[in-house]
Structure formats: C-alpha cells, structure tokens
Amino acid sequence: MRKVLLRILPLLAMIAFAGSATAQGYPVKLIKFVVPYPAGGTTDALARLVAAKLSAKWGQAVIVENRSGAGGNIGADSVWRAAPDGYTLLFTSPGTLTTNKSLYANLAYDPATFTPVSLIAASPNVLIVRAKLAVDSLQQLIAYAKSHPDGLNYASQGNGSTSHLTAEYFKTAAGVSMTHVPYKGSGPAIMDLLGGQVDVMFVELSSVLTHIRAGTVHVLAVCSEKRNPLLPNIPAVSEVLPDFVSSTWFALAAPPKTSPAITNKLSAAVVASLKQPDVVKRLDELGLDAIGSTPAEMSQFTKQETERWGNVIRISGTTLQ
C-alpha cells in the first residue's frame, strides 16, 4: 500500500498543479456566452453588457452567440455538451436551469449538472392589464375573474415562460380561471395588450418600465416580496395573496465538471463588473436589480427555484413537448 501511495501522490500533485495553472492563466482565448434566446431581449442585452466588462478586464474577446429555440433548450444543450474549460458558457434566464426540467418529458440535458458561476441580476414581475379593463386594483381583478369564469385572457412570452407560469401560479393562488394566449416573446404580447387584444399579463418590470413611465400601461401589482422602490405606490401581490413572489432572473453557468478554480475566477470578475458605476446605472435604467453571487449561492438558489416552480407546474398541469 505504501508503494502504491508513493506512486499516486506525485500524480495527484501534478493534476492539482495543472488545474491551478490552468485557472491562473485563464482566459487565454476567446470566451463565448451562449444566450439561448433571440437577440434584442433583456437576457441578450445583459449578456452583452457583462461580456464587454469581462473583455475589458482580461484583454480577451468575450462574444455573445444567440442560439434560440425549444424554450432555450437548443442553446442550453450546446453548452451542456461543450468542453468544461470555461470558454463556452450559458447566459440565461430561469427556464433552462429550473423550469424546463419539469415542463419537458424528454430533456436532452440535465439542468442540475450545469456548474454554477453567478447570479447576475433580477427583475420582479409585474401584473399589467389593458387600459379599458374595468378594474383598478388586484382585488377588483380577482373579483372580476371570479364573476366571469374564463372571461379574461392573459398573454405570455410563450408556453413555459416565466410570464406563463406566473399567471398559472396566480390562477391557483387566487382561485380564478383565465385563458392563455402565448406569444413569441414579450414585445408582441405587450403590444397586443396595449392595443386591447388581450386583458392581462405578468411580465418582468424591465420589459415594461418605459411604458409605465410613459403612462401607457396600467399596472395593478408587483410580484416582489415588498413594494418596489421604482413603483412605491403600487402594491405587492403578496399583500393580497400571501407569499406570492415571482421574478425573472439571469445567471451565468458553465458546462458540467468545470473546475471550481475557473468558476470562482469567473464569478469574482462578474461580481466586480456589476459594481462598476456605469453598469449600476444601466441596470437601473433597465429596471434590474444587480445580484452577483458565488457559485455556491447560485447553486442553492436554483435548487430552491426548481422545487418551487416544479410544484406550480405540477399543480397547473402544464406540459410541453
């Protein structure tokens, strides 16, 4: 046994040194953020903001590649199968890391095995209604929905999206029924709500903040734990439906088995970039709250979100192919 250990110990030391050296030299070539959604959305804008900061810090190109389709699964799967060397990373919103596991019966990748890097930012979802809907409060909306079963329709960013699942969560919590109208993204859904074609929508604050400031959208409630500083006069849904919380968050993850040395270095760089004054200002303009977390904190958070939204999905019976 002693002879075996004497042979193994130098090998283990060499492996440890190689890993340390790799992390110390990282990055030495182009880094790619895969955004599993189309260009132009909040995820894409945030990815490009962070990519620019990391590129400036390290003197290496950090690019964004949009690989959309199948609720984010195409892009996520490509990163999941990539080499665990820190050069191909997933920049995503919740679906690919948490809810898709419960929504899709045959997912090609395992979300739980991604290596966490950092939570980036979050935007509370808000409840908006068309201007001519005869309700002025959350209580009135619930009362109207109960007296008109399936008389209201609600828009979402698409089947299985955060806005879809938040509305299903609301239906269960409030004991109401509404008809789902899925869209391909926030933009067309919001435009149809503004035009009066749909009645209700849950959507991240960052997507409608300009409309709110212009007074062209009617906001009934925010889905944060407490009232949002940007909308101090708008109540939280939890004031009527206890514990009702929903946000759209954004995170950076690496392929399975990426070394802690690399993910810790990435995480520290992301956290530092989120503290820069111009980034803070830009996030405020987008209605986003900066987070910046360690890989361990992100791991704990995504596990909690997976369980919470998994329950919502099971109760609502929502499934996707």
Describe the structure.
By secondary structure, the protein is an alpha/beta fold. The protein has 2 domains: 189 residues, D-Maltodextrin-Binding Protein, domain 2, CATH 3.40.190.150; 116 residues, Periplasmic binding protein-like II (D-Maltodextrin-Binding Protein, domain 2, 3-Layer(aba) Sandwich). Strands 1, 2, 3, 4, 5, 6, 7, 8, 9 and 10 form a 10-stranded mixed sheet that branches. Helix 7 links the parallel strand 5 and strand 6. The radius of gyration is 22 Å and the shape is globular. It starts with a helix and ends in a 5-residue tail after the last helix.
Class from helix and strand fractions: alpha/beta
The DSSP helix count reads 12
Low-confidence stretches: 15-21
The CATH architecture classification of the largest domain is 3-Layer(aba) Sandwich
- Which class of the largest domain in CATH terms? Alpha Beta
Compute the CA-based radius of gyration. Answer: 22 Å
Mean pLDDT comes to: 91
What is the global morphology?
A: globular
CATH topology call of the largest domain: D-Maltodextrin-Binding Protein, domain 2
**Helix share bin:** 40-55%
Report, as a whole number of angstroms, the end-to-end distance: 54 Å
The CATH H-level homologous superfamily of the largest domain: Bordetella uptake gene, domain 1
Amount of beta strand: 15-25%
Number of strands: 10
Task: Estimate nothing, just give the exact number of structural domains.
Answer: 2
Biggest sheet, open or closed, and with what strands and sense? 10 strands, mixed
How are helices and strands ordered from N to C?
HEHEHEHHEHEHEHEHEEHHEH
